[in-house]
Amino acid sequence: MTATFDPTRQLAPSGPLVDEDREHHRFRVHRSTMTSPEIHALEMERVFARSWLYVGHESEIRDPGDYVRRPVGGKQIFMVRNKRGEVRVFHNTCTHRGAMVCRKDQGNAKVFQCFYHAWSFDTDGRLVGVPDRDAYGDGLDFGALGLRPVARTESYRGFVFLSYDPGIVDLVEYLAGATEYLDLVVDATGDAEIIRGTNEYAIEANWKLLAENSIDGYHAVPTHDTYFKYLVALGTDLSGGVAGTAKSLGNGHAVLEYSAPWGRPVAKWEPLFGEDSRDEIGRLRADLVAKHGEERARRMCDTNRNMLIYPNLVINDIMAITVRTFMPTSADRMEVTAWEMAPRDELPQLRQRRLDSFLTFLGPGGFATPDDIEALESCQQGFHSGGLEWNDISRGMAREPLANDEEQMRTFWRQWNEQITGGAR
């Protein structure tokens, strides 16, 4: 088969992929980073294989034997709580001939049995059953044939991460300044849980576009104009605008924190929630003040946070709490999974209000997600049209970064560039 030449395909330049000139306030990224299969292959090896990656939340596996199965970093894994209540994460492959031993997305099991030849493993990964075991004689060490745990598993405030790199720094060191914002989310929520069910969809665009988009305050007003008009029509006062900052949190993580222009179920009322909820939300706010003090409670109630934990975890604490991951399947396509986080055992009317807020803006059919998908796929199509080599990400370099500047994206790209060029472990 003869390969054909695609004149629109952008190959990596001979120079840098990320070009930063602080003196002239210029930051640009070569568009081959979004289109090159070779760069995609490097990302799998140097980014996803050498970072801490989000697996799931401990609330998804509350009881011994509870498990969830999902791909993480391009590999099939499953997370299970063992008899002692510990969280274990295993490669989802039988040590006999390779078939996946966990075949459902979630459930409860004492034993995972491979359907191919019926080898069985307990929740600690030990091999506990082999049909016709006598056929193997005495030479085979069955104790060494248990399921393989991933190289590293650690948890922070209920968020479980894995790494395929045994030499990676501890999770808390990796999270760096992101721990402050995870603490805000968890402390405001109390006994947090991931609500059962997921949003899953694909975007025909490079995964790094969604990393940018998720912490991009600059696009909100033009791209989501319909949503803002909808809020105004319901009586929400947006005349004060949005004030906030963009911060680097270290190790590629970044956050936007800004005044909430809309209601927040945690404790900021707006007309969308209905008049009958005003007193109830006021009581929620008073409880947070009593527990955390006026200033910390104000941040919890009145400010939004869009946070990226490098490379591919987004936690949006806005009109609802979204936990979202995205994984490239090629240079031009990603798969996205999103969950909603909420207080466990909250009253039904509170849960319904939270779900409505989540789906209205953040759901696959909400105001925001289709807009963002269209924008990112349009960018990807534009990259393949050719004619230009560089994206510009210079906004705000000449001043203290604001919420609608691009310092948070530059933070992501600096870490990405270090990993791709071999400068970071």
From TrEMBL:
SUPFAM superfamilies in the record: Bet v1-like, ISP domain
Signal peptide positions on this chain: none
CDD domains to which the protein is assigned, alphabetical: RHO_alpha_C_AntDO-like, Rieske_RO_Alpha_N
InterPro entries for this protein: ARHD_Rieske_2Fe_2S, Rieske_2Fe-2S, Rieske_2Fe-2S_sf, Ring_hydroxy_dOase_asu_C_dom, Rng_hydr_dOase-A
GO MF term (any one): monooxygenase activity
Keywords assigned by UniProt, alphabetized: 2Fe-2S, Dioxygenase, Iron, Iron-sulfur, Metal-binding, NAD, Oxidoreductase
Residue ranges annotated for the Rieske domain, each copy included: 53-162
Protein origin, superkingdom: Bacteria
The family this protein is said to belong to: Belongs to the bacterial ring-hydroxylating dioxygenase alpha subunit family.
Name of the protein described by the UniProt record: Rieske 2Fe-2S domain-containing protein
Species of the source: Pseudonocardia broussonetiae
